[in-house]
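ugh ok fine here u go
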Amino acid sequence: MLSQQLLEEVRTWIADDPDQITAQQLTHYIETGNTEALTRCFSGFLQFGTAGLRGPLGPGPSCMNRAVVSRTAAGLAIFMKRRGLRSIVIGRDARHGSEDFARDTAEIMAGAGFEVNFLPRPLPTPVLAFAVRQLNLDVGVMVTASHNPATDNGYKVYLGGVIDGVPYEGSQIISPIDQEIFADILSVSSLKNIPRGSQWNILDEKIIRSYVHRTAATVTSPRDIKVVYSAMHGVGTETLRSVFHAAGFAEPILVSAQAEPDPDFPTTPFPNPEEPGAINLALETARSFDADIVIANDPDADRCAVAIKDGNWRMLRGDEVGAILGEYIARHNTQGVFANSIVSSSLLAKIAAHYKIVFAETLTGFKYLSKIPDLTFGYEEALGYCIDSKSVNDKDGISAALKIVDIAAELKSRGSSLGEFLAEISAQYGYFYTSQISLRVNHLSELTRTMENLRRNFPQEIAGYQVVRFADLAQPHDGLPATDGIRFWLGEAIRIIIRPSGTEPKIKCYIEIIKHGDSAHEDALATLSQIREPLTQLFVNS
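structure:
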């Protein structure tokens, strides 16, 4: 039974909705008495946090739509005026709704009197981050849901310069700024009186050429190598091809079925290279062309996946790519700071110590890594890498792709390979095996309940291994601020971190197993086999 209170809330929202399509959807729900749909669409305003907005497309305040995005833009405008920020650049990917959401944002920002810049077409997120810094702008907005399913969209916010003593310099927002903006969003009671403008600057190709040339300059000695590339139905193809050409590398072989933007993601329902089967088409293409290496970006091209021919073709774990980049960069540049996120492998710390490079560990997410001054190399295990923070102060799947291909080409010229380079790293530091268990949930409230139960009822042993250390990361720990997660060790060589995903309705369990000796790989797999099911049951039953 539809309550009078909910009915009035829905009707008020319909009257204020700038989009006839979503307004008609809600009207249809009322006329058909679809209480379930209305309750789902009106379960609170879509949460705005450090990742901005991200959620399913649909009508009402709990979904991604023009009304929600317009209120978000209006709230962001309030924040900007209060903080004395005057300029913004807006970018978008090619997802359903992205063009409309970007235009709504531009209109509201123009109506508020700001200098509004618009990227000329759907482009990778790193180009947006680059533009914020290159053009010395105050704010950047990227309309994208990154690697989420086709039914989702999102809205990332970047800041330029230094705010509240935090060196944003073209990176994503962190707390408490996100909560300040969210409060401003919630203060927007109606869109009727929000002025809209039509005057903004559509940036020309110069900004894209600047990004391409700066990225291409990160390598100096292009060599022969055959690369297969997948854009995962996203917006990476054009920019990556331009970068490779400018750097002097041969044209990558495209995975044709995934090369052009397609908001329906027809070949992979979850367009994240880490998802099972997502890069199968790329591997098939690599076998057909006898390629040397496979590169895949996620749809907004800020993440980079790598697959190599190591006996059979296999995708490298994010931590393996991080180790390759870290070791290679350390051999050529010991200045600045190396850093990775808390859930990433501890191997990078070992590499940094070996080369006497300053190392830092941060909370999960590039929004934290990018705040480290003088960052020479930073990465997170979820396929995010930063090799040139002065250019893109965020993860950049295009520059990472170029650098890893450059390393692979150099190794090939010496009769070696990325697989052999990894073996060399393991011989030097030990074998650091990482794996992950993810559990998708139906509602975000399940994540909170699971974490609370784990904290209250944590076991003393798992799969015969004693829990020797336990840290509730909800309290500041090891120099890190509080975050929602737990970290514990089984013996001295198995580290486990459990936390909710920041971008998807998942609970994630990160496993690191450290082994030494000739049988290290086999020993690590055996240990993983022992602990995987008990760990899975641990948070399934919580």
